[in-house]
TrEMBL record:
It comes from Bos taurus. Keywords: Cell membrane, G-protein coupled receptor, Membrane, Olfaction, Receptor, Sensory transduction, Transducer, Transmembrane, Transmembrane helix. It is a multi-pass membrane protein. Belongs to the G-protein coupled receptor 1 family. It comes from the Eukaryota. GO terms for biological process: cellular response to lipid. The gene is OR51V22. Pfam families: 7tm_4. InterPro entries: GPCR_Rhodpsn, GPCR_Rhodpsn_7TM, Olfact_rcpt, OR51/52/56-like. It is found in: Cell membrane; Membrane. Residues 43-294 form the G-protein coupled receptors family 1 profile domain. This is Olfactory receptor. Signal peptide: none annotated.
Amino acid sequence: MSASSASNINSSIFIFTGFPGLEQYYPWFSVPFSLIYAVVFLGNCLVLHVVHTEPSLHKPVFYFLAMLALTDLFMGLSTVYTVLGTMWGLSQEIGLDACVSQTYFVHGLSFMESGVLLAMAFDRFIAICNPLRYTSILTNSRIIYFMVTILTRSSLSILPVIIRLKFFPYCRPHILSHSFCLHQDLLRLACSDIRFNSFYALALVVCTLLLDAVLILISYVFILHTVLAIASRKERLKALETCVSHLCAVLVFYIPIIGLTMVHRFGKHLSPLVHVLMGNIYILFPPMMNPIIYSVKTQQIRSRMKKWFSLKM
């Protein structure tokens, strides 16, 4: 082993991987990445602004939408400095403490987004299957309880494995697979007993992401059963249209996270470019697409944005 490699292994500095073999194109790649982050920040801030300032949007479903936008905004903030730093050639290095902190936010915000999508599915279930009791079930106090539960679950459940990352010896070359830090990526570099982290992380994924997905699916089974019982075809379509935005948000979130998990578990033989691409889709696609989806498909937000932009012009 060379002296430089030994020094890298013994240090607490980790090196990000951008797009292996394509380093000369980073100035070009930085343009679309910068535009994507601009959409993430501007789009989600605009959704938050519209929900806050428009009295007609002060309803449970839009409170959950505001929490979703806030989650996506923080996801962008937690990764922008490493992703664009790598693309712009500013720095490809990160210290262990900063890497562990970023890992905490990336995974914690993913669990939070899953919880918010589940809460939004519950909102649609009540609105369609039990509309007469909608306001009595989804009271302000209950909405606050849901939000606090989602925040607590996502922020505390991952602490045991995140804290352990700080104390692992990392004796393999400190080359990360992405331009941001992930729990499974750091485990790959650790030379210690990682069984607790592996089993706990798997149990956490099953008890949060998988369970949330199953509950969302069950809620839509009941929704579909209720909608099909409606006699009028026009009313059936109207009821289903209220779910389109949420269904798109669910697909936008779960498809990349499943893809990234499959690549990490079974795609070790694949090109590093596939890992990098899936990682960037995982952190950027949902935060970018959610404000677009809700701006296009939600009539109240769309009309409020049109009115706001006409006044600005």
